[in-house]
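ingest -> validate -> predict -> emit
validate: passed (alphabet ok, no gaps, 153 aa)
predict: started
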Amino acid sequence: MNVPMHKTVRMTFWFLLALLLIVPARPAAAQSTPPPFLFECGKVDGYFTTPRDVAVSRDGYAYVTDGAEHRIQLIDPDGSFVTGWGSYGYGDGQFREPWGVAVNVSEGLVYVVDSGNNRVQIFTREGAYLTQWDGSASTGGRFSQPAGIAVHD
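emit:
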């Protein structure tokens, strides 16, 4: 049976309208905090704007790079936010689009590829800045917009 397209669209519209009027709305589950607004989600701890990479340690903690928010977030094995660090800039512990991340649990180190600053920054697992491998290849350094990293644990 072939039903013309305009009749199918009309029948679907009336079906959806009837469904909205007949089925009672269920109350939303109570939330302790309201969800973030669209385009503000990455500014809230535990949410991301542009997650670029994730490294999961042997003990189940996830380190996530958020490029647009220029920060790293640490998420526990249950999915809850633990801490975060970083901001936009050129200084120690600051980022210009962090991309890659790797964690070495035995040494307690987190390696973050800071692509916009042509470097790899090294932190403690809690986010304290330690040192960096830096320099643009065009100025005699080691990197030109690095994007990924891997370490042996």
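The first strand starts at residue 51 and ends at 56.
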